[in-house]
Amino acid sequence: MEWSEDGWPRLAGGGNGPRTIVPAPDLPDHPFPPEPETDHFDGGRISIHFQTLREPLDESWASLTARPGYLRLKGRESLSSHHRQSLVARRQQAFAVEAETAVEFEPDTFQQLAGLIHYYNTRNYYYLYVSRDEELGKCLNIMCSDRGLYDEPLERPVSIEGWDRVHLKASIDHERLQFYYSRDGREWTPIGPVLDASVISDENAEARLEGRLIDQGFTGAFLGICVQDLSGQGKCADFDYFTYRELG
Fold first, then answer.
1. DSSP H helix total and E strand total for the chain
2. What is the mean pLDDT of the chain?
3. What secondary structure letter does DSSP report for 29?
4. What angle do CA 19, 20, 21 make, to 5 degrees?
5. Contact 103, 168 (CB under 8 A)
6. What is d(CA 244, CA 98) in angstroms, rounded to the nearest whole number?
7. How is residue 232 annotated by DSSP?
8. How far apart are alpha carbons 172 and 246 in whole angstroms?
9. Both ends of the chain: CA-CA distance in Å?
10. Which of 18, 80, 210, 225 has the fewest C-beta atoms lying within 10 Å of its C-beta?
């Protein structure tokens, strides 16, 4: 393209068709430094790779200043909500990846949840979360949604009563997803079965009912952190870091 004398962009050389071969710009190489795998939430802003649902990041529900060195998320609506969700996630950009975080959260009721999520949309996700059970106290559980069909693959939640924090990890190898948890971030224990990661895809998200399209895939797979408080009290969770690592 070139600017004409009368101030309009036009095809260089005239005509209506683009050239198949064009001269390359004479510029020096400018390699960009590799993106850090871990965001420690130590600065005044989070990584540009993070995205939120339907509204920008706002101090009213996602704060880097309330507790410096942590991202504090205020629990809001459920994962099925199309309005106010407290979810911060980044795009999955490889077939084999790991995502990891550490969360400090003290739920008072089973209606309060916080954790690590593999997310496509409100109908398709896998969620490893911290909540509270009447018998076990503070505990871990997994919830799944496949085209809106809800499931909990654990026979019984895993108690972490007395833990100040818990490290959570998702390991994805193509169509296989395995969740892990740890008290110290070094020794990891698998939790739940190997899950079908292909659920979190454009192809699976498109669903039809009696020939009518009721859900259409277009967003792609995301990995992130989120908090819900269905009691309406706005319980907060503090996330120390988030790691996204591609495994080659």
1. 1, 20
2. 92
3. -
4. 90
5. yes
6. 6
7. S
8. 10
9. 38
10. 210
Amino acid at 124: N
More confident residue, 131 or 11: 131
Mean pLDDT of all residues in 163-190: 97
One DSSP character per residue, 103-119 reads: EE---SSTTEEEEEEEE
User: Within 10 Å of residue 215's Cβ, how many Cβ atoms?
Assistant: 16
Q: In DSSP terms, which residues pair with 180 in a beta bridge?
A: 169, 190
**Strand residue runs (E) in the chain:** 2-3, 9-10, 38-39, 50-52, 62-63, 71-74, 86-91, 96-104, 112-121, 124-133, 137-146, 149-151, 158-159, 166-173, 176-182, 189-196, 207-209, 212-215, 222-229, 236-246
What radius of gyration do the chain's Cα atoms show?
A: 22
For 38-246, which CATH class? mainly beta
CA dihedral 190, 191, 196, 197 (to 10 degrees): -70
Residues in CB range of 118: below 8 A, 6 or more apart: 92, 99, 125, 126, 127, 170, 172, 177, 197, 200, 221, 222, 223
Name the pTM for this structure. Answer: 0.86
Query: How far is CA 47 from each of CA 37, 43, 109, rounded to the nearest angstrom?
Result: 10, 10, 32
Q: How confident is the model at residue 217 (pLDDT cuts 50, 70, 90)?
A: low
